[in-house]
Amino acid sequence: MSLQRRLRLLSDPNETKSMNTAIRVAFATSNLKEIDQHFGAAESFAIHAIDAETASLLEVVQFGPADMDGNEDKLDAKIAALDGCVAVYCQAIGTSAVDRLRPHGIQPIKVAARTPLNQLIRALQDELRDGPSAWLARAIERRNPERANRFDVMESEGWTE
Predict the structure, then answer these.
(1) For every residue of 5-44, which 3-state class applies, written as one string?
(2) Does the structure show a pLDDT above 50 at 109?
(3) What is the chain's alpha carbon radius of gyration, rounded to the nearest angstrom?
């Protein structure tokens, strides 16, 4: 299965500038409103940029119909389409897909079918404001590798406790 269509939204440059600190998150959805797709057979993903205060739809990636089992090649195009995402929300996902997503730094998150996207986005924003969970903290750290050695830099500048 290959990528059929990729629709990117153009945005105001001021809005884009404020979203530089946002995380990219994908949602397996056919209607842009709720999670209604299994990862392996997903016909589309909505990719959002999310930070503690704002969220915006960046793009929608569409694929052709696929069988649920027996076609591992379908995962390559989907994983490639999610490049830069820290997570993908779906209603189900197989172990082989999980094993292939993790090396790309993409956390698969299984949620109940018909969970509204806006509810998931608000929960992520709350988590970003209140302190991220372990997987989200690791994802943020991977996006900012210079932060990982910030204490070494401070020590080299003469800072002490």
Answers:
(1) EEEECCCCHHHHHHHHHCEEEEEECCCCCECCCECCCCCE
(2) yes
(3) 17
